Amino acid sequence: MPLTRDRAAALALAVAAGVALWAACRYPFGTLAEPGPGLVPLLLAALLLAGAVGLAVHGGAATRLREVRLADLPLALVLLALMGVATLALEHAGYRATAGGFLFVLLAVVERRPWWIAALLAGGFALGSFWVVNNLLRVPLPVNGWGW
Amino acid sequence: MEVLANLATGFGIALTPSILVYAFIGCLFGTLVGMLPGVGPLTGISLLLPVTYGLSPTVAMVMLAGVYYGAMYGGSTTSILMRIPGEAASVMTCVDGYAMTQQGRAGPALAIAAIGSFVAGTVSVVALMLLAPPLAAIALKFGPPEYAALLTLGLLVLAYLSGSSTLKTLLMAVAGLFLGMVGIDPMSGYTRFSFDLPELGDGVGVVPVAVGLFGISEILLSARQASTLQVKQPKLSELLPSRAEARASVGPIARGTVLGFLIGVIPGSAHIISSFVSYAVERRLSKHPERFGHGAVEGVAGPESANNAATSGAFVPMLALGIPSGAVPAVMLSALMIHGIAPGPTLIATRPDIFWGFIASMYVGNVVLLILNLPMVGLFVNLLRIPYTYLYPFILTLCLLGVYSINQSTMDVWIAIACGGVGYVLRKFDFDTAPVVLGLILAPMLELSVRQSLAMSGGDWGIFLHRPIATSMLGVGATLLAYNAWSALRQRADWRARVGLDEETTSL
Questions:
Q1: What is the Cα–Cα distance from A143 to B346, expressed in whole angstroms?
Q2: Contacts for B381-386 with beta carbons within 8 Å, 24 or more apart?
Q3: Do A99 and B397 touch (CB under 8 A)?
Q4: CA A116 vs CA A54, A124, B393: distances in Å
């Protein structure tokens, strides 16, 4: 029984459905006349599990898992990690410093653009977007302890 | 004749220079606001609401309606150029709009979106004018069983019309529905699946999920080719749609307009599904469904027309019954009430100047939007002349900024990042991500309707079979599903015949 892309996805979905079933069981199901908060999640988790089994059964003809191209995975993980760091920093360092730093790292370090162009663009975008969103549209953006 | 006379009165009000100026300001502001992911029509209207206190009610409604229309169109611009849906209604535009951009057809995609929005907006205003009272009466007949049946039908139609595997589409829709269970249960007050994180009490937002699954995942997939990626830069002569593209868009615009308006009338958030349904219908009707997802102009024309027509449809219950069909009409309703006007069945009789002035201003707003946006197509397309190595970092920052701006919550940003990662994996495994968003949108309404229906019937599932509207819709859904299963079995039989495995061979 070859491990295809669909079967791998079915396995992941079955695990997710198992977790969802376990989580749904923590809430009362009630009765059909008075359905509780656990009833619909339980039905959905069961549907997800049944669908995953169906996908596993019919997924034999899909592309083999080892043929899935993952050459872009390392950069994707770097970008996700950088976004995570920026999110952690956002409410501590303030929007302008975080957005400026995030853009500078992406342009100068990841994409290896000249550092002065990266600094200019990052600074300009951080200040400009802060002015538009925070001052013009009055959607409050975080500032740090120094008011930045 | 009476309608025409009233409309003439309305135009007399709407075409005064001051109203035209406010319509222009509203459309321009709305377009700019709509282009920022996360900062959609609701934020735009809420921002301008205090400004309208000092204006007359007609001027206030004209300006706010302009913001609404403008924001809907602005959201499609970022969907087409960057694959970032400004809001849920623009999700389907991302698919073929962005594919057209990659082929150097961003100009025609934006122009078709503008023209489709204009046609749909104008036609649906006529429908609003003529059909508001009877349609509103029909919409009132929708109780919990009818809603449950309608939403189930929506999901089944999507699966039936989907170009990819029905099973995979349904699995993604179920995953989206489950995601929609997160947060406080409106019937019991239980907080579900929040893992003790108070920010999840309100549930998972649609925009963070859509931005993650569409915008961020696209960058994760394409950033590695940033230095070599060639997004074709269109020439000035290629900014308008070709004759073939214009011809191919006529049907989708017409169908999207009708579908969008009818779905938009139904109170609740059902109007959001109009663009999903329109896209699915166009793919199914197309002689070349394989083009969908790879830059089919019909995939832009249909959903864009549908979501604009739904915008007008959403005004039907608001104007005719005083029932807002979503957050935006609710804010507009409050704008009227601030001026001491109570929308409802008596509005047409008591304040014809407001009703007909508003109707006429919607025509004017559509024309203003077209005049404003067609010349700007060239300007927007110039964004693509920026090398992708410079462009994608700004798009990522814009995604994070837009998602944060919705609730000023880093939880939304985390959700968008997580959905970006999940979207990357799903697309590697050939799953369509749009049904996740649709499931997420429909989940709260579907769950509430099912549970209310069961409570109404004392736990009898038969309630769905005893009410004509609900039974008809479920019957259509079941027929579609059965037809799909039959088609799949027939295809399988064909395949077996092609490789020489007939029934007799199999039985051996």
A1: 49
A2: B381/B81, B381/B106, B381/B107, B381/B110, B381/B234, B381/B239, B383/B81, B384/B81, B384/B101, B384/B106, B384/B231, B384/B233, B384/B234, B385/B233
A3: yes
A4: 55, 12, 16
**pLDDT range class, residue B504, cuts 50, 70, 90:** very low
Task: Report CB contact under 8 Å: B220, A6.
Answer: no
Q: Which among B28, B207, B220 is the top mutation candidate for probing chain A, defined by the most A β-carbons within 10 Å of its own β-carbon?
A: B220
Name the β-bridge partners of B183: B192
Task: Count the Cβ atoms, other than its own, within 10 Å of residue B247.
Answer: 11
How far is B156 from A80, CA to CA, in rounded Å? 34
Among the listed residues B428, B82, B212, the one whose alpha carbon sits nearest the alpha carbon of residue A71: B428
Measured at the alpha carbon of residue B34, what is the angle toward residues B29 and B35, in degrees to the nearest 5? Answer: 105
Identify the DSSP state of A130.
H
CB contact under 8 A, A87 and B413: yes
pLDDT at position B238 is 65
Report the 10 Å Cβ neighbour count for B457: 17
Please give the structure tokens belonging to residue B167: 């099973």
Residues B185 and B191: their CA atoms lie apart, in Å, by 6
Subunit contact B181:A41, Cβ cutoff 8 A = yes
Chain B residues within 8 A of A87 when measuring between CB atoms:
400, 410, 413-414, 417
CA B40 to chain centre: 12
Residue B227, φ and ψ in degrees, nearest 5: -75, -25
- Across B45-80, b (16+ Cβ under 10 Å) vs e yields bbbbbeebeebbbbbbbbbbbbbbbbbbbbbbbbbb
To the question of pTM greater than 0.95 for the whole model, the response is no
Which pLDDT value is given to residue B236? 56
Strand partners, B192: B183
The per-residue pLDDT for range B221-233, each reduced to its tens digit, is: 888 776 555 555 5
Residue to substitute from B152, B395, B404, interface A, most A β-carbons within 10 A:
B404
CA distance A9 to A57: 12
pLDDT for residue B425 = 94
Q: How many alpha carbons lie under 13 Å from residue A74 in its C-beta half-sphere?
A: 3
pLDDT digits (tens, 9 = 90+) for B112-142: 988 888 888 888 878 877 776 676 667 667 7
The more confident residue out of B99 and B44 is B99
Give percent of chain B with pLDDT exceeding 90: 12
What's residue B505's pLDDT? 42
CB-CB contact of B95 with B434 (8 Å) = yes
pLDDT of residue B86: 67
Residues of chain A positioned with their CB less than 8 A from the CB of B39: 133, 137, 139
Average pLDDT, whole number, for chain B?
A: 80
pLDDT at B229: 52
Could you give the maximum distance between any two Cα atoms of chain A, in Å? 68
* ipTM associated with this complex: 0.95
* CB environment B122-146: b (16+ within 10 A), e (fewer): bbbbbbbbebbeebbeebeebbbbb
Residue type, B416: A
